[in-house]
Specification:
- It contains 15 helices and twelve strands.
- The chain is of the alpha/beta class and about 400 residues long.
- It binds pyridoxal-5'-phosphate (PLP).
- The site of pyridoxal-5'-phosphate has 17 residues, from helix 4 and helix 5.
- Pyridoxal-5'-phosphate binds next to helix 4 and helix 5.
């Protein structure tokens, strides 16, 4: 099956209980049983069934199966947010005293989380690039996971998934990737060697900007060494399923970050059009980036520009597509604000992956609490504007940005 066919038919061949075309919204907290024996079996995992929505719910399962089929995993777990997914995934494999190797220029919330984990005794070593050389140099006995973003937001560096996973695997460590900005439309990281894929589904997967959510997909290929990954030792008997079961029946269940059924439904129907949207968004972003790059007083950062340092990686790993995020530098904060304020269609909002084009000045918002060095490592300067390109008609978008740029010169 190709991408759009798989999106619609990859996971729901037999429909649902009452032959519904879409998963019913099981907006309930609990599920009732005929007798106590049945519920006992469900709790003991001896029969399939739902008991309580924090632990499992059919609408969540439908969404999980859809994304799992797209990514090619052995199972997925939906979460209340992208941050909830990242927290649960990392805490499932790390204990106090352990180390994480992470790429620099990560999403701001993830950097903050990694700082928080220091207080639990989990230390992160940041690498400039997650390549073979750096990973092998930074690995210690304590390293339990390598974590990177497939396309970093908003610095737009591209992780070489095959190289990073090979280097991690050589040291007996799994590679977890945040693929939120790349989406399964650009790349399926599990096929290239990543072990776990995480998405903030709040962004492109939902696509309509109507619900916060996250998902963890397990590739099931990693061979856990239970002497080393002691956080998983109770799950030894499950072999390759150990990570998923550690989450499902233990850590994720106990942290309590389940997705709301209504959000799972909205994200499910949103994801149906992921292919169509990403196709359009990538075309729009490419056209807008090329139009802005012609303006001599702007510096544009977008993956498909021939001047971009990751241009070759985009061709090789992302099918030549650059995704929906572009940034450009306007020369000063004052001018960046003037351009943003003069835009007619782009909404000023702190989000990405909406149908509508969104703009923000990251230095005065998303990076307000970061130091200059951390901010610049993320490709953000005082004069940077971030654009999350939507599905509007590209002629209108380009005309709008060009008039705003022109007016800021006056
Ligand atoms: C938004 C985002 C997150 C966090 O997701 P939430 O759903 O907002 O919690 C994590 N990683 C990336 C790359 C993001 O863009």
């Amino acid at each position: 099956m190709k991408f759009n066919t798989k999106l619609l038919h990859g996971a729901t061949k037999n429909g649902y209980g009452q032959r519904e075309i879409l998963p019913p919204i099981s907006q309930v907290s609990a599920f009732q049983y005929e007798n106590m024996e049945e519920l006992e079996k469900v709790f003991a995992h001896k029969s399939m069934g739902y008991a309580y929505t924090r632990i499992g719910n059919p609408t969540l399962s439908a969404f999980e199966q859809k994304i799992n089929a797209l990514e090619g995993g052995i199972g997925a777990i939906s979460c209340s947010s992208g941050m909830s997914a990242i927290s649960a995934a990392l805490l499932a494999v790390c204990e106090s005293g352990d180390e994480i190797i992470a790429g620099k220029g990560l999403y701001g919330g993830t950097i903050d989380l990694l700082h928080d984990l220091e207080k639990l005794g989990i230390h992160t070593v940041f690498a400039d690039v997650l390549d073979e050389k750096t990973i092998s140099e930074l690995v210690t006995e304590k390293t339990k996971v390598v974590f990177g973003e497939v396309i970093s937001n908003p610095s737009l560096t591209v992780l070489n998934i095959a190289e990073a996973s090979e280097a991690a695997h050589k040291a007996g460590i799994p590679l977890f990737v945040d693929s939120t900005t790349a989406t399964p439309y650009l790349v399926t990281p599990l096929r290239l060697g990543a072990d776990v894929v995480i998405h903030s589904t709040s962004k492109y997967i939902n696509g309509g900007g109507n619900s916060i959510g996250g998902i963890i997909v397990d590739g099931g290929q990693f061979v856990w060494d239970f002497q080393k990954h002691t956080a998983l030792s109770e799950f030894l008997k499950y072999g390759k399923m150990a990570f998923l079961l550690r989450l499902r029946t233990d850590l994720w269940e106990n942290l309590g970050g389940c997705m709301a059924p209504m959000n799972a439904y909205l994200s499910y129907i949103g994801a149906d059009t992921l292919g169509l949207r990403m196709d359009r968004i990538c075309k729009n972003a490419d056209a807008l980036a090329h139009a802005l790059a012609k303006e001599a007083d702007l510096t544009v950062n977008y993956l498909t520009l021939s001047t971009h340092p990751y241009h070759a990686a985009v061709k090789k790993q992302l099918g030549g597509l650059g995704g929906g995020i572009l940034t450009f530098r306007a020369g000063s904060k004052k001018r960046a604000f003037a351009i943003i304020n003069a835009l007619q269609y782009a909404m000023i909002a702190s989000n990405i992956g909406d149908l509508r084009t969104l703009v923000i000045h990251p230095a005065s918002t998303l990076y307000l609490r970061s130091g200059r060095e951390e901010m610049e490592a993320a490709g953000v300067y005082e004069d940077t504007i971030r654009v999350s390109v939507g599905i509007e008609d590209s002629e209108d978008l380009i005309a709008d940005f060009l008039q705003a740029v022109k007016s800021s010169r006056e």
